[in-house]
Amino acid sequence: MLSTSYQIEHLMNNESIDLYWHAFMATLPLDSPYHYKPYVARRFGDTPEQAEKLGQLIMKGVKTGTCSALWEWEAEGNTIPKPGMITIVLNRKQMPVCVIENIEVFVCRFNAIDEEFAQAEGEGDLSLAYWREAHMRHFSRTLPKIGKDFREDMPLVCERFKVIYK
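Above: the chain sequence. Below: its structure as tokens.
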């Protein structure tokens, strides 16, 4: 689950993030394409507690997918992520825990999410029923901030990613 509007943290001047990125770069050969890729740093979830929990699940490789409401992207005028996007995952204190790379991005209706994607989200008991309940609560809490209400047929931006550094 992402925070409202994906809340990409524009913290590129944060020293701990810079140091973490440079530590990652130091592990790579000089001709690695990662040296030329831009990155973002962000927390997952819409509370510090969720950021901590979800960051740990990502770092452990349990959480390999996430979703957000397309409406949030549109409300902020942001373009949705693309495969190859690099993200430094932050914990509750805005400290880096790992680096991930998007391997797939697609738009899907809430009511069309399947068991496989629910499992990739890595939360709760990994069931589709848990995923639906948790995400219904999340979107019911966050969407009113942009003048929208949760709907079963709402479009979601779904991302699959892999940890590339920790």
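Strands lie at 8-9, 39-43, 65-69, 86-90, 96-109, 155-165.
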